[in-house]
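Course exercise 7: structure representation. Students receive a sequence record and must write out the corresponding structure in token form. The form below is the worked example handed out in class, using Two-component system, sensor histidine kinase YesM (621 residues). Read each field label carefully; the graders check that inputs and outputs are placed in the correct fields and that the protein name is recorded exactly as given.

STUDENT ID: A-19
EXERCISE PROTEIN: Two-component system, sensor histidine kinase YesM
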Amino acid sequence: MKNPFARLLHHYTYNLKLKNKLVISHAILLMVPTAVVTGFLYARMYGIVMDDTIRSEQALAAQTVGTIESLVDNAIHAGEVMARTGLVLDLFNVPLEQAGTHQPQRSRVDSLYRLASNLVDHSFITDIRIYYDDASYEDLSRYNQGRHPLFLPISGLDSPWIGQFESSSEELMLCPGELLSESETGECGGLASILRLSYSRTGSNVTVPPQASAYVAVYFSPDILEGVLAGNTSVQDASTYIVSSQDIPVAGTAPAADGRYFLPFPQLSNRLGTGQTFSLVNFQGGAAYSAYFPIHDTGWYMVSILPASHITDAGRLLMVQFILIYLLFVLLAMFIALLLSSSIANRIIAVAYQMESVRTGRPKPMKVGLGCDEIGVLSDTYNYMTGEINRLMDAREQAAEDLRKAEFRALQAQINPHFLYNTLDMINWLSQTGRKEEVTRAVQALSRFYKLTLSRRELMNTIGDELEHVSLYVQLQNMRYENCATLVVDVPEELCGYTIPKLTFQPLVENALLHGIRMTEKKTGSILITGWREGDDIVFIVSDDGAGIPPEKLDSLQESAKKAGGTNPPASGTETGHIGVYNTNLRLKSLYGSQYGLSFNSHPGIGTEVMVRLPANRALS
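STUDENT ANSWER:
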């Protein structure tokens, strides 16, 4: 008796279906190497990911420092621009004994206000003020405009930065919020760049330390800096803050504000070593990779702290992603194996289903080729056979269409030719009696009449041309029968651009004239053609006030109208006018279908109405 492994191998080799065999083999070949490679890479890639994460965070921090330096430079530059203006130099860059002697012109003050307004963008730079030495200067606040003061006395300001300037020889100072008064932080901004302007020294006082004549204060928002710091890192719970060399916090993100990862300035170099390099440091909130970066020309430092627990998150995330990608490829390989095993059966079934479509309509070719193997050859042969069958069916349909058009033209030819003979006979009679003007009008009308009918080989005409055609017909008949009929056309202009089969109105008007109006005692009457749009159809009514149609003839006419389109023409005894009406109805139904054509309504002694219904098809320009 074979052992279980041998029996399992025999079953896999000889009894298992090909589809399942391919799926299992692909799964084994992919999953075993995947497990080995995953265990090997986890140990090697973890350290690589950690180092790469720290390097990328270090580069991002350096980029953030550059952004902060650029923002602070904008604030410093704004103060220097204000200090270099002619008005500020004339006011404050003077000897002490000349202070307050210069009276600025209103136009120059206005220009200074406009400059300050242009420099304040209300997003980063929030306000600009000039604090002057009111012990030497008169009240400059009288030059302030509106509710926005530009000139303010130093004596009215109680800010720590004034004492800082008095004990320092620096001309420029960047002040955190702790060095500003409450009024400054509330009205102007949380940070400030302050530039000292000094009295000019001449003569005997050249060796005396400079004395401040004014301070140009540019206030800016810490919110913008905090927004930049918030984007400094991609590590969760990272802490970033700015601290001054005087150990005063400038701005920071939320984790820095709660004190878990805060380092005072004196401890930066002791605990973090050299700047701009991350090192592992223990904090109250846990171990973290930390580094500090000097912000040039500011006396500020940016400190970036990355919790070690979240740095390892990136490594674990990478391994999870790695495993998921491998699992995805395993599933993809199994899916491909399933497709390979199913392709042969599925392609044969596809050809069979495509052949079965002949039961419900034309055979359809397969839109996608099935390859170059034996099944692909079968598919190509089927497509060739389908193309030949469809070509023969198209030829048959075209022959039927040509036959329909030939029958249509034959029906056109059946329109009463006696009209031409009678009109020519009338013209001959008018000529013999010397009525030349009437002969000219008759010839012109007849010429235009047949030009509209015969000038083109198309079966269609526009409704406008057909209305002109029937009006010419009535004009010629009135010349023959001494103005026996009045034609009234009430059709909207917008319908004149749609198509209608040629000679649609003429047989109906001829029937109304000869078998309606001419059959009354007075031999005169009116013919009215009205038309309108009804959904996707156009409807016309051709009505007259003639003798009408007797009920028995109306029933016969209605019955023949319903049967139009069949193979049986009207009876040979039918009147000529009714044959023209029958042919018109037959043409409409053969062109458009049984729902279109003519319908009749008549009352003896009152008149007749013929309704024409056809689809609304706009003529091609």
